[in-house]
């Protein structure tokens, strides 16, 4: 077996480019640096240059950004990551790179075309002087030697739990103790930022336990790891809800989080002068006032139910509730159930009701995209998040960065062929659905599920079986708009009457800034504007183009207010950058924000 | 950067040897196979050939073993492990190898000298048809499709918890829910062997929580991983007792174990005719009779306190207890404390008492070896279990197998130089100890701490600070034997009187077969004989030579009775082989034991 690896053209090209780029930056010459990029280039920065999450498009935007940041950032040490050899394919040379700034260390990804940079990703992963205590820097645990003033680990934990929020104020308060909140809290613990997580439910994991019986994660295990503690190799592909709940409960303990269960945030206001929040919470029935410097809402990207208001709802004599409040199917055996909506929750609930022996009708109000779970795993996620990817040496961290390296502006171009493949692969499935009268779409530009998720956070179903029930008529399908309810059922605009004992409104969720309206004020909610969405100008994602998810994981128009969430992958990946932004402020490092987003939509 | 790897002499030598070995075995020719070994060779087998844990020394023993096992085992497919390239150093060529048997797949390690095998390790890691459901075989979790009879993960878990031990009998009962018991139970769960773990304490982890306040593990994190779920990178080097307790509690849940807390085994008897144990346990105060086919005692290798019997103990008016019952120092501030013993527990307790402000005297009755923790980590464990080892690509599994590949008969030869180095490195420390009158030894043959642990499980202290208290006189040291106690103190044989408010008997532990005496009968305890010890003929490890730890992790003279335990490393590593032995029996695979050990010592 003979292996010869030699410095090849790809490495030479990257080395040359990095040399020129490093020199231009060191010379504090933005125009010279920008000239190394293609006309149609993208530079995505995750807090390394901008203390913001921004993508810059073309030389002019890059020049302006560098002009404003370069003298402070003082980037240097650009080099190819050890073990991340450059490779060329289809005229594009890719490379993993390392660099430093005046305050931290960064990783990046580079794509060259004809010797010029087409896409550049720069990310900060640690702050100098505030490196996380892991691996070679892990704590000793035992304090060796003899010390009459010794306190034990448990005593220290008890002491912290007793004082934080009582005699000592947390620097960060995280509202919401689901996977997003606790993953962020784990990172902040590593960075020694005093943090409390509150959640209204009785136990960590109850966010999942309280959902319907048959729920399993729709994303596979490789996509779902939490920071620091990976699921073991025997973890199921799709976590059952109670199993992930138990995991998250263990996680809060293993990560030594200050987690306040049965605690609800009642009101919050920010004092611009003192830079302090006043947050009134009810902890196990008792009011407590917390005064954190930073407030993070991690109450769920899809957390605020959009409950519709149909005439006659007040007269309906059966059960009716939003999908988020659906107790599961057990009480509805043999009953007539109408589910309004045709996305993920609607399908899941229809499937579970049918399994229990209910008579189920789905009301489809607008077109929906469906990807079959197995196809999604194989052709959309497989290269980055799968057993095969792991076997080929792909780590979760590298997969996350690879995904992050594709600019949102052109991501659909990479997605469209995936769904063309899916359409071919599952041809019979889609034909059967169509025959059953289902209004199926592939997204405005045929870019499929993930772009819908990124643009609007809705409009799709990851099929784990319930689509077949619709296709074969086991779950009845009706298309149209709800006009009103009567005492005994739902009436559509075309006059169709659907008698019902149960009506479920699987009508989706509103923007996270609705949480800010409730907790802080409508004024602050309007000031920060809508969360989520790229401004793509596609359905339910109006422009102007933003280039990044609105308000997520980055500074907002309200000082010291942050939004955190997304799916497990996003929560894991972006929690690092949010944690570093919070740490920089706690440590008093200058972290001026470049290009703070403007607000174009209020909700 | 140019790397050239070519088939070298080491690879050629191993390939040649494996070819000849494989042919001799395939030809069912034990003598021809044995002739490929050196005169002074060792073949250590972990259940692959013998369904036993045995080391064979020299060609005759190897020939006899092969003669008895070869036609059944049908080994084949001998090859160098991918990525485990052979290497030569000092005339010894080492290689990692794979092979198969008629029932399973194995891994091994080989050392050649002049083209002949000097040491061979063969281990079985999985049974064909009973591969563990992990990695590419992990469970789906979600059951896709629509199924009216669907039960959820939680319902299945609840149903199992309600029926196992009530309407369905466990195949295996594990007595003792510390790290050893639950690690084994986790493996049995993966192998679908119905198992219950019982423990008398209220919560998993209480085995650690109940110990004295300042206790931390004496072994470092890299040595301590549990099966399947590794400690995260931010885990401390030395786990504080409450932190490891929380981890173990989470572990039982994450691994979905059937763990009965607050449950004590009261009596057990085996029916040789039906092959069934009758075990009466008290579960939360209620008697329950269990009828497992296999009984595992995992109550602690050092679990049965050796409480001495000194004249006058009944008249002593202060507190007195065995070290295992020591409540910690808090009640003894300012009091006169006498600790009888000079090993690990004695030092830990003396240190904590001194820190609390007690007046402490250690009674040293016999010589003790002390290794400083940092030195032990660096020069004894570092190559296999350390951050540096991890960085160099060493995995826990590979480290365990590497350690397992050194035959016990010659292990001291590798250990002696380590302690020569330690003696030099910590010269000042040992001189100060000696000056203080401490009776220090390096083991009968200067082979140090680990050989003492393997031979007798006692006689040493891993210094985390308390040795200095003895060296500098903060903890008073007295040498001699206890003659009797008075109402007010301890009197030594030389007449020395030690006034005391507290006497702690840090007098060690008895063999695990004492547990069998209590639970089953003295007859069965005598029948299986002493646990632990190699028969080295050194202090407290009388011959004849056994070559393996007596009765540990392998069949005993009592059918269906097993002993499991050791430190975290051993519990992790050997739990695999014990689990496979139990699985083979549960699955009805023929698993004839070759070379069942004889009993030479009863306790």
Brief description of this entry?
With 603 residues, chain A is of the alpha/beta class. The first copy, chain A, has 18 helices and 27 strands. In chain A, strands 1, 2, 3, 4, 5, 6 and 7 form a 7-stranded mixed sheet that branches. In chain A, strands 10-9-8-14-27 form a 5-stranded parallel sheet, with helices on both faces.
Summarize the helices and strands and which ones pair or pack.
Two copies of one chain form a homodimer.
Chain A (H helix, E strand, L loop, with lengths): L8 H18 L3 H5 L2 E10 L6 E5 H16 L2 E5 L6 E3 L2 E9 L3 E10 L2 E12 L25 H11 L8 E4 L3 H12 L4 E4 L7 H4 L31 H14 L4 E2 L2 E9 L4 E8 L2 E5 L3 E4 L6 E2 L13 E4 L13 E5 L3 H12 L3 E6 L4 E4 H9 L5 H5 L4 H9 L3 H18 L1 H9 L12 H8 L4 E4 L2 H6 L4 E4 L2 E4 L3 E4 L4 E3 L2 E4 L3 E2 L2 H7 L2 H7 L32 E3 L4 H19 L17
Q: Biggest interface, which chains?
A: A-B, 69 and 69 residues
Largest sheet of chain A: 7 strands, mixed
Give the distance, in angstroms, between the N- and C-terminal Cα atoms of chain A.
Answer: 61 Å
- The mean pLDDT of chain A is 95
Kindly estimate the percentage of residues of chain A that lie in beta strands according to DSSP: 15-25%
Q: How many distinct beta strands of chain A? A: 27
Shape of chain A: globular
Structural class of chain A: alpha/beta
* Poorly predicted ranges of chain A: 1-6
Rg result of chain A: 25 Å
The quaternary state of the protein chains shown equals homodimer
- Give the fraction of residues assigned to helices of chain A: 25-40%
The total count of helices of chain A amounts to 18
């Amino acid at each position: 077996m003979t292996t010869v690896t030699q410095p090849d053209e790809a490495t030479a090209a990257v080395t040359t480019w990095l040399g020129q780029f490093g020199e231009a930056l060191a010379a504090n010459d933005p125009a010279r640096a920008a000239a190394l990029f293609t006309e149609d280039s993208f530079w995505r920065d995750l807090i390394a240059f901008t203390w913001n999450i921004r993508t810059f498009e073309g030389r002019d935007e890059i020049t302006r950004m560098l002009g404003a940041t370069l003298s402070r950032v003082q980037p240097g040490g650009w080099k190819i990551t050890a073990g991340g050899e450059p490779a060329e394919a289809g005229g594009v040379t890719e490379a993993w790179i390392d660099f430093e700034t005046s305050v931290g260390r960064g990783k990046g990804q580079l794509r060259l075309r004809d010797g010029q940079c087409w896409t550049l990703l720069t990310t900060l992963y640690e702050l100098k002087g505030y490196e996380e205590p892991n691996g070679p820097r892990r704590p000793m645990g035992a304090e060796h030697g003899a010390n009459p003033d010794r306190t034990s680990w448990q005593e220290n934990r008890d002491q912290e739990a007793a004082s934080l929020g009582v005699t000592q104020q947390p620097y960060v308060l995280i509202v919401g103790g689901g996977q997003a909140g606790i993953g962020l809290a784990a990172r902040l613990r590593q960075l020694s930022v005093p943090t409390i997580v509150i959640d209204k439910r009785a136990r960590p994991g109850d966010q999942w336990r309280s959902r319907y019986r048959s729920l399993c994660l729709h994303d596979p295990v490789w996509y779902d790891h939490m920071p620091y503690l990976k699921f073991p190799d025997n973890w199921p592909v799709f976590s059952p809800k109670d199993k992930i709940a138990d995991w998250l409960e263990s996680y809060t303990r293993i990560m030594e989080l200050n987690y306040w269960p049965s605690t609800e945030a009642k009101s919050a206001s920010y004092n611009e002068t003192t830079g302090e929040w006043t947050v009134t919470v009810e902890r196990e029935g008792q009011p407590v006032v917390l005064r954190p410097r930073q407030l993070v809402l991690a109450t769920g990207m899809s957390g605020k139910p959009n409950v519709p208001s149909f005439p006659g709802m007040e007269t309906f004599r059966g059960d009716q509730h939003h999908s988020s409040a659906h107790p599961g199917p057990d009480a509805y055996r043999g009953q007539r159930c109408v589910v309004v909506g045709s996305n993920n929750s609607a399908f899941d609930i229809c499937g579970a009701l049918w399994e229990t022996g209910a008579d189920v009708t789905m009301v489809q109000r607008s077109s929906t995209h469906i990807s079959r779970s197995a196809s999604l795993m194989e052709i959309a996620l497989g290269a980055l998040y799968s057993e095969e990817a792991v076997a080929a040496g792909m780590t979760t961290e590298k997969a996350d960065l690879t995904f992050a390296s594709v600019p949102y502006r052109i991501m659909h171009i990479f997605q469209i062929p995936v769904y063309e493949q899916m359409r071919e692969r599952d041809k019979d499935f889609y034909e059967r659905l169509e025959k059953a009268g289902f209004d199926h779409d592939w997204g405005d530009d045929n870019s499929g599920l993930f772009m819908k998720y990124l643009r609007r956070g809705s409009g799709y179903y990851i099929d784990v079986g319930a689509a077949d029930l619709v296709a074969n008529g086991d779950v009845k399908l009706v298309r149209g708009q709800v006009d009103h309810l009567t005492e005994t059922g739902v009436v559509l605009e075309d006059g169709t009457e659907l008698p019902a004992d149960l009506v479920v409104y699987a009508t989706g969720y509103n923007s996270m800034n609705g949480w800010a309206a409730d907790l802080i004020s409508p004024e602050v909610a309007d000031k920060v504007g809508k969360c989520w969405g790229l401004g793509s100008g596609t359905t339910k994602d109006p422009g102007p183009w933003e280039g990044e998810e609105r308000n997520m994981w980055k500074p907002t128009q309200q000082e010291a207010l942050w939004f955190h969430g997304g799916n497990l992958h996003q929560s894991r990946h972006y929690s690092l950058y949010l944690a570093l932004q919070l740490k920089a402020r706690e440590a008093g490092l200058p972290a001026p924000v470049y290009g703070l987003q403007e607000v174009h939509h209020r909700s």
